[in-house]
Amino acid sequence: AQKVTQAQTEISVVEKEDVTLDCVYETRDTTYYLFWYKQPPSGELVFLIRRNSFDEQNEISGRYSWNFQKSTSSFNFTITASQVVDSAVYFCALSEGSTLGRLYFGRGTQLTVWP
Amino acid sequence: DGGITQSPKYLFRKEGQNVTLSCEQNLNHDAMYWYRQDPGQGLRLIYYSQIVNDFQKGDIAEGYSVSREKKESFPLTVTSAQKNPTAFYLCASSIGDRSSYEQYFGPGTRLTVT
Questions:
Q1: Using CA atoms, how far apart are residues A58 and A50, in angstroms rounded to an integer?
Q2: Chain B residue closest in CA terms to A101
Q3: Which of A26, A78, A95, B77 measures 20 to 30 Å from B44, CA to CA?
Q4: Nearest one of A78, A80, A75 to A106, comparing CA atoms
Q5: For position B40, what pLDDT does the model report?
């Protein structure tokens, strides 16, 4: 079974629109970590954020914000006032305390921001 | 600058040939990983190494082999036994193998086998 589900395969928005990328995870561990990575057209994955399972505080970093809700097993990512440079594939990933070092990735969401 | 290098960026091979993909890091990280990415798919783990001279199979290790003789190097060999080798290969490293550590990725190698 897929441990991380990103149901949105592709999203297109126009510049300055807000956009939310969904991520739903599945784990039986009480200790786990959630990550978001960005993959621009160049191919290299760029680390954006890590959250641990004991910290449900939302986080904001500039135009990026993350909403972690254990009750719905979700870790959604919102980009406010999107820009063309935000166009990329975004991956959500899970690391469980019981499987050291293993990252389980979702299939990614291709975000296209049009000028 | 510290980082992960993968070479070459594009690689072409004939079917039946083994090919080795290079991955080098100067971040002084203990753990290193190899992933495969196919269109529309997430990243799938091929092999990982938590320490020098030790490595474990990931989810799709068949047809691949690795070595970890030096801390900074983790080459991946795609053998002729790999039925569908054309893909984008990404190498990553992290400080250690704890689940809290983020992984840092190299630029990837796009392998095409015809």
A1: 12
A2: B97
A3: A78
A4: A75
A5: 80
Query: What is the share, in percent, of chain B residues with pLDDT greater than 70?
Result: 98
Write down how long chain B is.
114
Query: Please, is B100 exposed, middle or buried when counting C-beta atoms within 10 Å of its C-beta (0-12, 13-18, 19+)?
Result: middle
What's CA B38's distance to the chain center, in Å? 14
Shortest alpha-carbon distance between residue B90 and chain A (Å): 8
Phi then psi for B17, rounded to 5 degrees? -100, 140
What digits encode the pLDDT tens for the residues A34-50?
999 999 998 999 999 99
Write the CB contacts of A35 (distance below 8 Å, at least 6 apart in sequence): A47, A48, A49, A50, A51, A92, A93, A94, A95, A103, B102
Chain A: closest CA distance from residue B74 (Å) = 16
* Reduced DSSP (H G I as helix, E B as strand, rest coil) percent helix, strand, coil of chain A, to 5: 5, 50, 45
